[in-house]
User: Fold this.
Amino acid sequence: MGARPAYHHGDLRRAVLSAALKVIRSDGVGAISLRDLARRAEVSHAAPAHHFKDKAGLLTAIATDGFELLANALATVRTDSGHRLREMGVQYVEFALSHPAHFEVMFRPQLLHGDDPELTAAKERASLALRAGIEDLPAVKRPNTRRAGLAAWSLAHGFATLQLSGNLPALDDDPLETFRALIDNHPAMDLL
Assistant:
């Protein structure tokens, strides 16, 4: 058996996170093992623990990155108030489809250190961005901001989850256009 290569990572944390995201994309979150990730990064089996302490710490870091990426994506939506919420939903779906491994981990609190301050801050930042889309609606369309937010989030999250799991029938070539059409033509959207 050959000797393990010397530690050459300028950023072991990022290397382990990248390896974990690849594993999650290909085999699911259940396949994550710090020992396997250390092997993939060609470092000692204990090296990842220096950054993440345990598997939940690693998954918390992935979720934190995911919420930061989502908040950044939502912040790019700049349309008139009549379509901002719709475009935020489209951006949410696009985020999920572009970052499926993050998306798989972000909404699985049983896998995370829920009291992690960085995770809490990232979740709050994403939540504030989503709420901004609801608060832009005319007052007559948002009698209950929390319920309107839950309805909008459920629609985008449900669509993204169905698309990622392969359970959504192909209505056209572009899932984002399908989602836009769903929002534009769905009677429940009149409530928003």
